[in-house]
Amino acid sequence: MSYAYAPARDKNHKAMTETLHARGYSTVDCSAVGRGFPDLVVGAPGLTIIGAISRAQRMMIMSMLPSSVRVWKGVTVLVELKNPDLPKNKRKLRTKQAEFARQWPGPTFVMEVEKDITKEFGEHKFMEV
Q: Is the pLDDT of residue 68 over 80?
C-alpha cells in the first residue's frame, strides 16, 4: 500500500493500547488503513450461550448478573482514538469515519482517555482461566 503521506497515529494511541492490553483485551492497530476505518480493532472475552433460548430466558439470566457485568453479543469492537489535547471541534469524527461507523453493524467507540475505556468496557480486567 502506498501513501501520499505517512499515516499518523494519535498522540494517545500507545497509552490507550497499553491500557487495553493491561486489562486483558487484544488489539490490532489499523491506524494506517484509512478510508474512515477506525484506529483499533479490540477483542475481548465474551459470554457465549450455546443453544436456543427465548427472550424471557435471556432476560432472566441477565437479571441474575451484577450490574457491573457487561455482556456483549459479539466480542470484537472497533475503536476510533481522538487526541484529547486537540480543541473539541478537531476531535469530531471526519466524514468518512462517521459514515463508516453508521454503516458498521457492530459497535464503534470513540475514545480519548483511559476513563473512556472504563465507560465503555467497565472496570473489570479480563484474564485467561
A: no
